[in-house]
Structures are given as structure tokens and as C-alpha cells.
Amino acid sequence: MKRFFGFVKKEFYHIFRDVRTMLILFGIPIAQLLLFGTVIKNDIKDAEIAIYDQSKDEVTQEITAKLLSSGYFILDRNLESINDIEAIFKKGKVKEVIVFESNFGRLLEKEGKANVQIIADASDPNMGKLLANYTTGILNDYITKKMGEMKVPLQIKPEVRMFYNEELESVYLFVPGIMAMILMLISAMMTSISITREKELGTMEILLVSPLKPVQIILGKVAPYLGLSIINAFVIILIGNLVFGVPIVGSTILLMAETILFIMMALCLGIMISTAAKTQMVAMFISLIALMLPTILLSGFIFPVENMPMALQWLSSIMPPRWFIVILKNIMLKGTGLLYVWKETLILLAMTSVFTIVAVKKFKTRLE
Amino acid sequence: MKDELLKTETVTETNNKVIQVKNLVKKFGSFVANKSLTFDVYRGEIFGFLGANGAGKTTAMRILCGLSSPTSGEITVGGYDIYKETEKIKKNIGYMSQKFSLYEDMTVSENIRFYGGIYGLSISKRKEREAEMLAKLKMDEVKNKLISSLPLGWKQKLAFSVAMLHDPQIVFLDEPTGGVDPVTRRQFWDLIYEAAANGKTIFVTTHYMDEAEYCDRVTIMVDGRIDALDTPDKLKKQFNAQNMDEVFLKLARGVS
User: Fold this and answer.
1) Within its chain, how far is the Cα of B111 from the centroid?
2) Given Cys at both, which of A7, A311, A323, B171 links B94, Cβ 3.0 to 4.6 Å?
3) Are residues A145 and A264 in the same domain?
4) Which one of A148, A163, A178 terminates a domain?
5) How many DSSP H helices and E strands does chain B contain?
6) Counting beta carbons within 10 angstroms of the beta carbon of residue B14, is it exposed (0 to 12), middle (13 to 18) or buried (19 or more)?
7) Cβ contact (<8 Å) for A211 and B119?
8) Nearest Cβ partner for A2 among B102, B105, B117
9) Is residue B55 included in any domain, yes or no?
10) Cβ distance B96 to B163 under 8 Å?
11) Chains A and B: how many Cβ contacts under 8 Å?
12) Are A178 and A158 members of one domain?
């Protein structure tokens, strides 16, 4: 045990004395989080909209005036035909079209129910959803005020449609996605680099000649990064929550447990990489190309898995971050418990055990 | 130097075998790196392992250190069986590779502390050894300096001393003086003599033929075989050569 602590201490010397390592460990996560968070805007102002008013009565005029005076929307033009909608979206300037059905005011008065369609350009999914939410909010506000004046319960039924990205899967995903990416990067890349560095320097031979057991070497390498990754996960969740308002609806303990599981998985992956790579350079390239890119592209972090071709969907299912993101999304955003994520948890557990077995086995056989 | 040489030779005569190798074979697939090596190393001698690059000397040494396992053969190191008692062997050997094996981003003291730790030295024992070592190397003032700030020769001497920190019976040195100037090399060999005089067995691979002259006995490997094994003087006589360089060339060209 004393040997083990001596080893861990040595690892911390390596980490804390290397500016680049420190930067990768703590600078990059925060920078990336802030960058992604700001690029994906979550505030709207003066969004250009078009209105296709088939009714043109008092009520629709009132609603339109209310929308335009809110400060969020600017009227680009009034449309005269349903066919104009697609055309105007293609131009790209107008981000949302609102369609009132004919006899809107009369229907609302007589039957207490009228339909309005909100069509948003969701090629920027976050924006699309925000616009639709704001519009719905203003409509609801109008109804509540109107209800006071009339006796019948009123109901405007907004039908929201997202153009180009109906699923709207990636909107709140950037924090879970970033978290998966950063933990993957730090845990896998940093361990694989730190092990291959010892190989390159020749110190690994000395360690293997010494009475230290391979398992002690592996654990000694992994322990510091496990600790630092957990700290990182905390920081990411905290920044996500305080700066970007990403909620943590579910159990924090479950969230942490799942996070530690994912970190362990990534650490084992890192050891596996280090058994295959001879130099730090190779280890870094494998980590970046085989882990980073698929994490960004295939895990559903930026591009929804549902929209991928079947072959890529299969490929994405062997990407650990894909399952981790589902877990994070469920716990953080929906507040569901283990009951809803046990399948994904099992998949991560299985992946972790496979990687551990392969890593330990390969690490030993390298001595032969 | 000659005095020490004589002294170690008398130890050899007591026939105290510290490494015994019988019919060691190592294959990598169809390539045979070691073709049935048989030799003994005696306590307190400086045993030189010579050969061109690729002759199989590093392979053989790695097997003796436990970094690699032999395909077949009977081998004991420090009296322990290489197949069954690897843990005991590890405690009894020191190893220094071609690369210096100290951590550049740690201070002299931290390195000593770390290596003392992984060999399970007690804190008091480690402090005692550290003080002794730094005094001997005259490096007490630099003990809080990073290894990266030290000159190459210092690092090398330090690495050698660290390899002996846990007081091993045998020290394996894998081409320890590669890329070092002649003066530093000479100083390094003084350290080796001193260790041998203190009863340590030194097993050293090299391809510097002048270094072969410093060894008590020399093995010359060609193509995975041991072509010659004796004291440098006897080898020179046997091959009718002026120096070890000539001996080696004659062997390598197949003249005997």
C-alpha cells in the first residue's frame, strides 16, 4: 500500500509540473464548455418572422400586435399563400412562420377553440425551439388575459412544427455532450499518454523490473486521473448549471455514480490504447481520432442518432459516449431514476469489464 | 584499477555462481534470438556481454531481468529459479537501461524517494542510503534540483546509484555508457569497479570494445550464439590479437 501511494504521488508530480498537462486537464474543459455554451445561443431578440393570416380579424390582429411589441419578433412580411412558407424559409432570413386558420376569431368566440400553427426553422435546432417556446408563451399570455373578460374557457391550440429537424434532439445536449467528450478525452488520452511516456523514457522497464506488480502500476497510473476527472465532472456540471442554467432534475448521487462508471470505462480504454501504442504521439493520435471524433460526430452529441443512416447508427451503438449521453440526459434533464437508464448502465458496465480484461491481459503479455 | 581486478578474480575462484544459464533459447516466431546459451556468472565479477547490435545480448539480459520470458532453458538468478521465483529475483537485482531511467521532472531527492518506495525500503533506511549516496557522488547541493537540469554524466552516475539503492546482489547494466564522452565513461567505470569491489555482481552489455578490457570476463555474442567466453587477456592470447577490438572483428568475420 505504501508503494502504491508513493507511485500515485509520483504521478501527481508529473501532472502538476507539466503546464501542458494542467492546461489539458483544467483549461480545455472550461474553455470548451464556455465556447459551446455561448455559440449555442439561448436568447432571442428581433427574430424575423412571417405571418400567414387566413382570417384577418380582430383577434388575429391583436395577437400579431402583441407578438411584434414583445421585442422578440420583427415582421418580415405577411404571406398570402401556404406555398410561400417553404420558399421564404429557403431564403433563410425568416426564422418562423405563424399561420392562423381562417375564421380564427369567430371559432375562438363560438367554440372557445382555434388553431394556430407555429413553424420554426430548426436547422439551428436550439433557435427553432426557443422561437416556438416564446411564441407559445405569448399566445398563452393572451389567452389568460382574454379569459378574464369572457366566461367560456378559451383555448388556442398552437401546433408547433420544427422544419428540418423535427426531433429537436440535440438542443439541451451540449452540456451532457461536452461532459462525455471531456471525460473521454482526459481519462483515455491522459492515461494512455502517461503510460506511453514511461515506455518512451525507458522508465517503464525499470518499473517492470522492480517488485511492483503490473496491477499496481496500472492502478497507480489510473488513480490520479480518476480523481482529477471526477473534479472535472463536478466543474462541468456546476458551470452548466450556474452559467447556462442546465438543470439537474434527477438524483445527484446517481449522476455521480454513472459519471464514475463512465470515467472508469474511459480509463481502461486509455490503458488499452497504451498497450497498443509505443509512443506518446501514437497514443495521442489514437485517442483523438478513434475517440474524440466519434464522440463528437456519432454519439448524438451534435447530430441526432435518429437521423443517421442505419450503418452509422450501428456504429454509434458501440460508442460508449452515446449511452452515457442518454444516461446524463435522463438524469439531468428528465429527472428519471435508475429504472429508466438501467439498460444503458448495463451496456457501460459491460464495456468497462471488456476493456479492463483486455487491458490487464495485454499489459501482462507485454512483459513476456 | 589492476588491484581491484585481481581482487575480484580471487572471488571468482570461490566458484560462487550467482547466475546460472543452461541452454537458454529465445525465439520470436521463427526468428531465434538466442541459440542455446550456456554460461555462469560468479559473485562479485564484472561480466561483460559483448556483441554487435542485434546479436541477442539485450534479449538475453532482458530474460535474466524478468522483462521477457525464455522459450526454453534452465536459468537461475541470485539462486532463484527464473520461472517460479520471479518476485524474489526482482528484489535481488538492480537494472539500468540505455535510457537513464530517472524522472526528469522530479528532483534528485524525489527520484530517490520514489525508487526507495517501490522497493519497499523503510523511511529511515532510505534516508540513510540517500545521504550516503549523495555524499559519495558529491551531489548533496543539487538534491533539490530537477533531474532535467543536471548534466548527462551526473544523471548517469545517479541512475547507477539509484539502481543499487535497495542493495541488490546483481546489477544489470544495458549499454550504460551509450552517447557519453570518454572522460565521463571512465568515471562511470570507476563506480562500477567500486560496486564490484563491494561484492556486487555486475552484468553489463556494451558494444564499446575498450570497455570490454575493463571486465573480468567477457562473452562475445555473434548471431545469437556465444562465440567466446573468457578473461580479456586469455581471449587476446587465444585469438592472437592486440586488443579486444581485434578479437571481436576476428570472431565476427568467422576467423578463429
Assistant:
1) 21
2) B171
3) no
4) A163
5) 10, 10
6) exposed
7) yes
8) B117
9) yes
10) yes
11) 77
12) no
**Closest by Cβ to A206, choosing from B97, B105, B120:** B97
In chain B the beta strands, taken as DSSP E runs, fall at: 17-28, 31-42, 46-51, 72-77, 80-81, 93-96, 170-174, 201-206, 217-222, 225-230
The cell numbers describing B252, all together, are 565476427
**Looking up cell 425551439, which residue turns up?**
A129
The boundaries of the domain holding residue A357 are 2-39+170-365
**DSSP summary character for residue A157:** E
- The dihedral formed by the CA atoms of A269, A272, A277 and A281, expressed in degrees to the nearest 10: 20
Band the pLDDT of B146: cuts 50, 70, 90: very high
Chain B neighbors of A3, CB-CB under 8 A: 117-118, 120
- pLDDT tens across A221-231, in order? 889 999 999 99
What is the C-alpha radius of gyration for chain A, rounded to an integer number of angstroms? 27
What is the spatial distance between Cα A142 and Cα A56, in angstroms, rounded to a whole number? 17
Contact: B67, A205; criterion CB under 8 Å: yes
Domain C-terminal end among A111, A141, A163: A163
pLDDT, tens digit, for every residue of A126-158?
677 778 888 888 888 888 777 766 655 666 666
Distance of CA A342 to CAs A257, A283, A346, A349, B186, Å? 12, 32, 6, 10, 67
- Rounded CA-CA distance A167/A64 in Å is 28
Quick check: B90 and A2 CB within 8 A? no
Interface touch A13/B87, C-beta < 8 Å? no
Q: Is B69 on the interface with A (CB under 8 A)?
A: yes
Q: How many independent structural domains does chain A possess? A: 2
What residues of chain B lie within 8 A of the CB of A7, using their CB? 114, 117-118
User: Which residues on A lie below 8 Å from B114 (Cβ)?
Assistant: 6-7, 9-10
- pLDDT tens, B90-107? 999 999 887 777 899 999
pLDDT at A368: 45
**Dihedral angle, C-alpha A171, A175, A177, A182, nearest 10 °:** 160
| pLDDT for A165 | 41
- Sheet with A47-53: strands ordered across: A73-78, A47-53, A96-100, A113-121, A155-163
Q: Considering only the beta carbons, identify the residue of B95, B102, B120 that sits closest to A3.
A: B120
Q: CA A321, CA B72: separation in Å to the nearest integer?
A: 46
Distance from CA of B10 to the nearest CA of A (A): 30
Q: Look at residues A10, A214, A281, A147 and name the one whose alpha carbon lies nearest to residue B90.
A: A214
| Interatomic CA distance for residues A60 and A78, integer angstroms | 13
Strand partners, B172: B95, B203
Scored b (16 or more CB within 10 A) or e, A300-325 reads bbebbbeebeeeeeeebeebbbbbbb
Show the domain range for B193: 2-101+167-252
Query: Domain of B34: which CATH number?
Result: 3.40.50.300
